[in-house]
Amino acid sequence: MEINVNVNGEATSADVEPRRLLVHYLREDVGLTGTNIGCDTSSCGACTVHLDGESVKSCTVLAVQADGSGVVTIEGLAPNETDLHPMQEAFRQNHGLQCGYCTPGMVMAAVSLLDENPKPTEREVREGLEGNLCRCTGYHNIVKAVLAASGQPVES
Ligand code: FES
Ligand code: FES
User: Which of 57, 88, 101, 149 is most exposed by smallest CB count within 10 Å?
Assistant: First the structure.
């Protein structure tokens, strides 16, 4: 099937099999490999992107379901070539990443979380990110980063 998807503000299109997953479309057809694949069970969240403004696990969405929609990946988050998105900056400043494998998905999920709840409590951040797993178990600093990005004071 021919699909047309706006990815990070740019029109993309391809002829895809109906079973092709959105994450494979993004990584292999569009060439944006920042969106990672960490499992094959819809459980890790490494593949999280925004689909029409909603956070989704792109391994659970068919590429054809994104036809006519807009997708934002981690590559499309920063405002320009040199500056980071405030959430990326907060992760950097608060050491919210170790190996970095979960980070693109964590950041995308965290941005959605603050869109829905701009001043979350620590517990709300933990609950909001429970669909995203960090195999380095760096949750403490990830939560700190999200709280910092929300403009709330964080303990060192
Ligand atoms: S790769 Fe999509 S949830 Fe793990
Ligand atoms: S930083 Fe390594 S998986 Fe999260």
Answer: 101
CATH of 2-76, one of 3.10.20.30, 3.40.50.1580, 3.40.50.1980, 3.40.50.300: 3.10.20.30
Q: Give 36-97 as a DSSP string.
A: ----SSS-S-TTEEEETTEEEETTSSBGGGGTT-EEE-GGGTSSSSSPPPHHHHHHHHTT--
Best mutation site among 39, 44, 94, 98 for ligand 2, i.e. most ligand atoms within 8 A of its Cβ? 98
| Ligand nearest to the CA of residue 23, numbered in listed order | 1
| Averaged pLDDT for residues 83-88 | 98
Assigned superfamily of 86-149: [2Fe-2S]-binding domain (1.10.150.120)
User: Model confidence at 152, in pLDDT bands (50, 70, 90)?
Assistant: very high
Average pLDDT over every residue of 125-140: 96
